[in-house]
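Students often ask why inverse folding is considered easier than folding. One informal answer: many sequences map to the same fold, so there is more than one right answer. In these notes we will look at a single instance of the problem. The structure comes first.
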């Protein structure tokens, strides 16, 4: 039953790839691809890539192969103290974007707090470094790691002036 209910969602993904793009949003993988891939992986692993609905969606199966080639990087073992030292020595690289259509008129440099709107309602406070339709980035300083840029999706988070 659940595989049957995935059929329209998989068909929508197939339709996104019909124009020849490599990934769902264009030429490079994004979080959209990662979010969709896990469902395809689950069905492939537990049922088969060749049975419906995946068996009837060749563009989606080819996309899955491209996603699998993305890989997982090359992890390096390191202690937590070494990781903190690397973070402290790094300088955040931020592409600054202001949202000209922001309904609250928030501007870069404002002190804000970002809080999940569903659970774990602990606000993170910092300086607004970038604000797009999809993302908010704040700069903050932490005694253990120095300056950091914290990225949040815009959906699911409340952005308010910091007290």
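Output (designed amino acids):
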């Amino acid at each position: 039953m659940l595989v049957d209910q995935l059929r329209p969602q998989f068909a929508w993904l197939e339709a996104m790839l019909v124009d020849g793009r490599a990934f769902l949003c264009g030429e490079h993988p994004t979080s959209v691809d990662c979010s969709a891939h896990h469902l395809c992986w689950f069905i492939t692993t537990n049922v088969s890539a060749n049975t419906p609905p995946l068996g009837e969606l060749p563009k989606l199966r080819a996309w899955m192969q491209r996603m699998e080639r993305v890989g997982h990087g090359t992890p390096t073992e390191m202690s937590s103290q070494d990781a903190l030292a690397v973070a402290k020595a790094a300088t955040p690289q931020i592409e600054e974007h202001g949202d000209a259509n922001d309904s609250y008129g928030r501007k870069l440099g404002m002190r804000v707090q970002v809080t999940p709107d569903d659970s774990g309602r602990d606000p993170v406070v910092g300086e607004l470094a970038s604000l797009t339709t999809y993302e908010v980035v704040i700069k903050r300083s932490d005694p253990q790691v120095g300056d950091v840029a914290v990225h949040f999706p815009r959906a699911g988070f409340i952005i308010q002036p910091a007290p």
